[in-house]
Specification:
about 300 residues; alpha+beta; five-stranded mixed β-sheet; three-stranded antiparallel β-sheet
Amino acid sequence: MTSLKPLLYFSLFKYPLTKEEVVAFSNSKDPNTVHQELKSLVEGGVIYKIKDFYSCENDATQIERRLAGNEGARKIAKKADRMSRLISKFPFVEGVGISGALSKGFFDEDGDIDFFIITSKQRLWVARTLLILYKKIFLLNSKKYFCVNYFISENSLEIEEKNLFTATELVTLIPMYGNGSFKRFYDINTWAYAKFPNKNFGQGLGELKPIHKPSITRLTEKILRSKMGERLDTFFLKLTYKKWELKFSEMNPDQFNVAMKSTKSVSKHHPQGFQHKVITRLNEKYIAYETKYNIALSKEHA
């Protein structure tokens, strides 16, 4: 049931979808098939159509919440651009994109701006540490508008966890600043097309702004493109990993290795294990709908 799956996925976030969005997040290449399925599901009482939105719950307040969040995203757009530009000026940052709820066009008072950052090879942890220090010192450790929780190196751009959650994050990512790294990123991760053949993959590349580094950044990069910089990068990796091992010692090891991935080419800081929770809850919803409506839904893997 290609039209039901997107609705079930976004229902986890209480986010109803328009007909066009259901098509975009469906794995069917035929929009007419999706349209017919939506009509059938509404008539069968499986889903609900409220105004121009489709939802798994007959709850008009979710429509109001979504519209308010969409307006919030529009209002925060300029600030998101300013913060993206600021991040792009840091040493060894090669690309800055917006992910999370804002990349889906939603922002409310409880939200924050999530950034996806591509760094130079062998200097990911230098870049990350400088950004974290800036957040702690100048932003008083507030992540509201500066949530730098996912870094990837330009020499290792393939997303290893290939599932519905990562594919959704990938195709909704908004590239903001970069000098070529995002084009390579999308070229390497075309596997997401299989899950969303109707999504305009990498649609933000046409609006990608070039990175212009200030003199102090260029000087810092010149100094740290050395053995000293390489040793410093390894030191920051080991230091951070050891800190996280102690802080999140109660986390399941397998989940820790995904949610807090720390290698020379990847840094993730997702202590809530959001990816695992989303896939688990989604599969639970699949089972509930299969039981209630006798609809076959193939399970997702984490």
